[in-house]
Design a protein that fits this description.
- The protein has about 100 residues and is of the alpha/beta class.
- It is built from four helices and four strands; from the N terminus they run E-H-E-H-H-E-H-E.
- A four-stranded parallel beta sheet has the order 1-2-3-4, covered by helices on one side.
- Strand 3 (about 60-70), helix 4 (about 75-90) and strand 4 (about 90-95) form a beta-alpha-beta unit.
Length: about 100
């Protein structure tokens, strides 16, 4: 069973585990706060880092979806997104390259 979530809340891990969920996808989208604000989705880079740490502490597997090269992204924005993967250490990533 899979779940797609953003942002991760601590109580969700227990609820998803009780439902049989082993893996969750999180739409992190970018490691650049500037890009997240341009997407107007209300996401925060800091929440991605917090969510992956909580998920790992609760023993849940996680995968992260990232957008690379979104409209208006600078080379620095792309670098921030590329470093998010190794720093958050998800079990898998889905990447969309623009």
């Amino acid at each position: 069973m899979f779940s797609n979530f953003q942002p991760w809340e601590p109580s969700w891990g227990r609820r998803l585990a009780a439902a049989g969920c082993q893996t969750g996808w999180m739409g992190a989208e970018s490691g650049s706060q500037q890009i997240l604000e341009a997407m107007d989705k209300g996401g925060k880079v800091s929440k991605t880092y917090t969510a992956t740490a909580l998920r790992r502490a609760q023993g849940r597997q996680g995968r992260v979806s990232l957008h690379i090269g979104s409209r208006g992204a600078t080379w620095d924005d792309i670098q921030l997104t590329l470093k998010l993967g190794p720093e958050c250490r998800p079990e898998g990533m889905g990447n969309q390259v623009y």
